[in-house]
Structure formats: C-alpha cells, structure tokens
Amino acid sequence: MSTRIVVAPDSFKESMTAVQASRAMAAGVRDSLPMCLVDQVPVSDGGEGFAEAVSAAWGALWRAVATVDALGRPRTAGFGLDGDRAVIDLASSVGLEHIVPDERDVMHSSTIGLGHVIAASVDAGARSLLIGLGGSASNDMGLGMLVALGARCLDEQGHKVEPVPAEFSRIRRIEVEPARRRLEGVRITVAGDVTNPLTGPHGAAAVFGPQKGLTEPAITWVDGEMTRLAGVLGLSHWASCPGTGAAGGTAFALAAVLGAELAIGIDHLARVVGLRERLESADLLLTGEGSLDAQSLDGKAVSGVLRLACECSVPSMVFAGRVKMGAKAQQRLADLRAQEIIQISDPSEPLGTSLQRGPYHLRRAVADVVRRFSTGCPLKTRSG
After folding, report:
1. Is the pLDDT of residue 196 over 70?
2. Rg for the chain (alpha carbons), in Å?
3. How far is Cα 179 from Cα 257, in angstroms, rounded to an integer?
4. Based on the domain organization, do 186 and 315 belong to the same domain?
5. Fewer C-beta within 10 Å: the chain N or C terminus?
6. Is 273 domain-assigned?
7. Which of 50, 37, 62, 66 lies closest to 10 in space, CA to CA?
8. pTM (predicted TM-score)
9. Which residue segment(s) compose the domain that 9 sits in?
10. Angle at which helices 18-32 and 358-376 cross, to 10°
C-alpha cells in the first residue's frame, strides 16, 4: 500500500521552469514520505515552459535551433521532436522574458524567430505541430513568423516591408502562399493562454500592449492598422474571433492564414499528458506558480489543474512565490477543494535572492506541508 501524489506546477517566473518546479516538489514529497509514489506532470498554459513540459510528457528529443529574439538578435531556442510530431513555444524564441525592460520596443519587435523554429521542426520531419503561445514581446499579428516561412509584406511599389508595427502603414499587399506551401501537409494546433480577439477594446494591442511598452495613442493606431491588415489579407472576419489576439496576434496568423486549430493551453496540455487519468489514481495534488492572484483562476494553468482535481475528488494544495488574493479569490480556490495555499518565499529576503533560491524554498515548503498533511490528516491510500 502506498500513497500516490501528483505534482503538477506551472513555471515560477524568473525562478524555475515548470519542469524544475516539479522536480523540486517531488524532492520535497520524498523528504517527508520516502515511499510515496510521485507522479511529475509539469504544466503550462501555452507560455513559458510549455514546450519543455510537453516534451517531458512525450519523452521527446530536444532539438536546439539557432534563431533570433523579438528584436532580431541571435539566440538559441528549440523544439521537442517525437516521431513526426513536434512541440514549440513562442516564449523560448521571441518571448518578453529575453528582453530587459529598458530595451523593450514593441513597435520594432517581431515573431520572425518563431518562424525559424517552426521551419526547423518541419525540416526535421515534423508533420504535426503543437505550438504554445504566451509571454510574447511583439504585437506584429504573426507577420514576422509568416515572413520567416516565406511570406512577403510589400508596399505600393512592390518593395519588401519589415513585418513590425512601426512599418504597418506601408504594407499594401501580403503574399502568404509561399508560407502556406512551406507548411503544406502539416497539421498545427495552437495552445494559447488568452481568449482575446485580434482587435477591438479587448484585442491584442489594447489589453496586452501596455505590458510590452505600448501606450496611447500608439495602442489605438496599432489596433487600427491590424484591422486594416486583416482586411488586406481578406480575413477581416477572423479579427473578432476569440483567441486570435494571443501572443500579439500570432494566433491570428496561425489560425486564419495557416489553418491551425486554436485550443486553450492548459485544457489541451491536460489531454496531451493524460492528466485526468493520472489524477484519478492519486491521493493528493500539489500545484503552484510564481505569483498567485485572481488572474490565476481565469483559465490559467493552476486553475485548470485544480478544476480537474476537483472533478476527480482529489484534494489539492497550492504553492506560490507570492500570494495576492482577496477573499473572493480564496473562496474560489476553496470551492476547487484547495485545502491550503502556501507562500514559499521569505518576506524578509530580497526578491533577487528569493528567486534564486526558489527551488530550495519550494522543496522545503512541500516537505513541511506533506509532513503535516500526512500526520494530521491521514491520506487515503491505494494499492501501489
């Protein structure tokens, strides 16, 4: 007879990837319950760590790719390859995390780097792509990605135009057929972390532009140009579709131009890794993320994992670097059978030090909680 615990954390931003967090959690469980069966299921809602989490679940081979960041500077990203299927996340190539705050320039940022990674995966034999979107530094509606795959943005004279917001007004024609031919026969599924449309008051520029450095009146101007360019492509009807605003409109290009299927990140990942089935045989779920707040409950990874655990009648505990939740949010967590919310950081410790020591803090917190839970409230055991 042995206890089975599922550890399914998201990333702890600037401290641990989802995979690193799951390892720290598993170590903490074993510190207190050495004979416990620990099932590690690192999760992500489509952003940072998505490809790494899925690769771990698939047992995929990681392929490094020389590409560029959102500002066109060289960097190394990669993808997980398992047979003829590949998993990619935008964040590893053109994510906001790779650009320090004072260098962020959304008007001159693009998704060209993501296009290079996609091309490399297809060249490696992939015919089914799972692409995670989230954490982007750009708002180029995916034009950079399309250009890297062979598309061309042209002005009135037929000259090439750089696929960045600062040059949007010069674009009069977009030739996408070369990109479509490049991916002919390739099935694409997009795991996004938002449900916003491409344009409008809830669109990519209006909602996510400010966190990338976009301000008024540029927000309104960029939104208007994206509306116009959707028309140039003959795809205006896609601009209001839920989810197309993910990653600065990259989801729009993938779905409307390349025929990708849009899926909410954590729900799709849960199916890919068989999370429900793994929870059905579990006694306890441990999950968490870097900062736990009300937004964490709105379609993000942690809320999706907690929802599945609740449906499987599995009690859960949530760990976070920082906890900023009001009474309503805490009640929503309680409704999802979250028995305890644990802040792992030491308030007296400098933020930089706390982030660096994240794995240590998480392991220690998990060990302490599992010890208390197992002795004070004995877990129901199952046959191992």
Report:
1. yes
2. 21
3. 9
4. no
5. N
6. no
7. 50
8. 0.81
9. 4-42+283-376
10. 40
